[in-house]
Amino acid sequence: xxxxxxxxxxxxxxxxxxxxxxxxxxxxxxxxxxxxxxxxxxxxxxxxxxxxxxxxxxxxxxxxxxxxxxxxxxxxxxxxxxxxxxxxxxxxxxxxxxxxxxxxxxxxxxxxxxxxxxxxxxxxxxxxxxxxxxxxxxxxxxxxxxxxxxxxxxxxxxxxxxxxxxxxxxxxxxxxxxxxxxxxxxxxxxxxxxxxxxxxxxxxxxxxxxxxxxxxxxxxxxxxxxxxxxxxxxxxxxxxxxxxxxxxxxxxxxxxxxxxxxxxxxxxxxxxxxxxxxxxxxxxxxxxxxxxxxxxxxxxxxxxxxxxxxxxxxxxxxxxxxxxxxxxxxxxxxxxxxxxxxxxxxxxxxxxxxxxxxxxxxxxxxxxxxxxxxxxxxxxxxxxxxxxxxxxxxxxxxxxxxxxxxxxxxxxxxxxxxxxxxxxxxxxxxxxxxxxxxxxxxxxxxxxxxxxxxxxxxxxxxxxxxxxxxxxxxxxxxxxxxxxxxxxxxxxxxxxxxxxxxxxxxxxxxxxxxxxxxxxxxxxxxxxxxxxxxxxxxxxxxxxxxx
Length: 547
What we know:
Layout: H1 12-40, H2 45-53, H3 55-64, H4 70-83, H5 88-121, H6 127-139, H7 143-159, H8 164-167, H9 169-188, H10 190-206, H11 209-215, H12 227-258, H13 265-300, H14 304-331, H15 333-341, H16 348-362, H17 365-380, H18 384-405, H19 408-418, H20 428-456, H21 468-489, H22 497-522, H23 525-546
């Protein structure tokens, strides 16, 4: 039944395409999930509690689960194959059972102290809502165990060329949550949605197993790392895990501060982040996951020139797709949010507020993608500590910017002088401060990371030959003209699915056509390579039909 998960892919293009396609499928399901939530619950306190309750299990997963992620373990796998000092199977057995031991202990400790954590970091919830937050957080502490074990198998599968199993995880995960919302909620209330989350985490783990069994790599013996072996892995993995925790703490802070604003603010921030992360998953995470095993191999084998060429190629592709997405999300955030979330309970004020936050977030799509790619490149080079210090700096800078901007003067200025308050939901000033602080921080973080990378690699520029100025020009002029045309034909929209559907279809098609026209006029290596790949695929399909 799941034999398709055993299909191997051995090239960057194919691997990235599979990851991007299934990630897109996952993101579409995530949008359907959010649409169901917006229809059923709107932007209210119930969803606020739900989204906030994810943060504690997320931090637990990032703190412990990422210690055995693909980006940490793949270099160890390569080293074992090279040195032949230990069998790969013994190493897998030790990782598997040592992780279960530590995750169980950490989860139990967090389970006990959830009430204290809630009162400190999510003080916006009180009474019954606070108790709901505590209960949901405790139930969802089950998920980090399965998500963490999945990371071990994802690393093994990607190393062996099995990208389908890791790419399809999001599809099963979101389907499970949708199942909980549609079929379990009527019987169990919001507990049904939480059960869907747990089912999703278990399925996340199970879909990794077919290739693992095929290769005979499932753990066979109960073995644990010695203290020295644990330390050898921990000193390499810890900086990445802590770096990811700090990155997630940044998002947790956005959610926590939203909880002290008007009801629905957490939901609006969560929805905006979900939409903003779609292109990040499709572009940066797909390419970085597909490219990481090859980058690690080049670097470990001392093929530095090949490593540089390959890294530049990946960055160039990220920019090629990233700039059009950035401008599309910026110019069309209102249409996208209306189409994805608009409903009876999610009205014009909620649409306008979420769209404004998405527009601000969209400005850093490329910066966020670059940060992700730079992190993968540093991991491939074994420089995990840099990502730790970089994320620590980003978190520190964010806190400074936020507390400078969150004064009454600036919030009042945003709410009353810049914006028509009646056009947006209550608390828009506070939400804008959070969004502006987040985007400003990511821009500064990306600039710092790029400059530091050039310094430690002796002026090796990742952007050499990327034609990034041409990419910006083509993307901007195409989407801007598309938006002008859109305003001509769709200047009066009502809050209906069909209205937004026709509007978004026009936006997408006109933007794509204009992008192709201007790319044909001004050229560009990435466009020509992408065009050649698409034409070859169409040619193959045509020849198959002819035969």
